[in-house]
Task: structure prediction
Amino acid sequence: MKILETDRLILRRLLPEDLDGLFALYRDPEIRRYFPDGTLSYAETKEELEWFLDGHPDHPELGLWATIYKENGQLIGRCGLLPWMIEERAEVEVAYLLDKAYWGQGLATEAALAIVDYAFEQLNLSRLICMMYPENHASENVARKMGMTLEKVMEDETGQFLLYARGRDRK
Ligand SMILES: CC(C)(COP(=O)(O)OP(=O)(O)OC[C@H]1O[C@@H](n2cnc3c(N)ncnc32)[C@H](O)[C@@H]1OP(=O)(O)O)[C@@H](O)C(=O)NCCC(=O)NCCS
Result:
């Protein structure tokens, strides 16, 4: 099921046959460098993929979506919207992860901007966030390009992280 389309990308629901492609990304220490759980095993990747097959189980309109490069039809990442409770507030995060062979071409920004429009226009959300470790400058730049600003520096058992956010009316 297609969620949205941009000039170069299609975002669609994950399918069981995406497992090998997703694992190729999740096993890569460089791609997973700024994730608290680091690289994932095949079984862990399968578990995550199955969790998102019909959208997020508690919020089917949200989830991680296969990100397909239209030019070659390849799965080059997964992007989407994830629900979180942060300091007792329900939040929705814009999430992005791409194959490193495709970094630096504006593709994450292209996906993220389309996700922001989708979230505000189609899903009627009023606020979006992004969380990243302070060292993840690429992720921070994508958040800024979505019109988000740094709201606070937070900390959990994995260390400090940045909370970027924007409301719907801030283009
Ligand atoms: C974060 C990520 C999705 C960015 O993807 P991308 O397609 O390379 O990003 P873009 O090309 O759209 O670049 C967005 C901005 O960040 C900048 N940028 C990209 N990589 C950067 C880096 N390593 N360091 C600093 N800035 C960087 C770009 O220059 C661009 O800004 P500019 O237009 O002002 O030059 C990609 O690096 C990735 O998949 N990382 C691993 C997964 C991850 O960490 N996800 C985020 C978890 S919070």
About this structure: The longest strand covers residues 74-86. Residues 31, 34, 96-98, 103-109, 132, 136-139, 141-142, 145 surround coenzyme A (CB under 6 Å). The mean pLDDT is 97. The chain is about 25% helix and 35% strand.
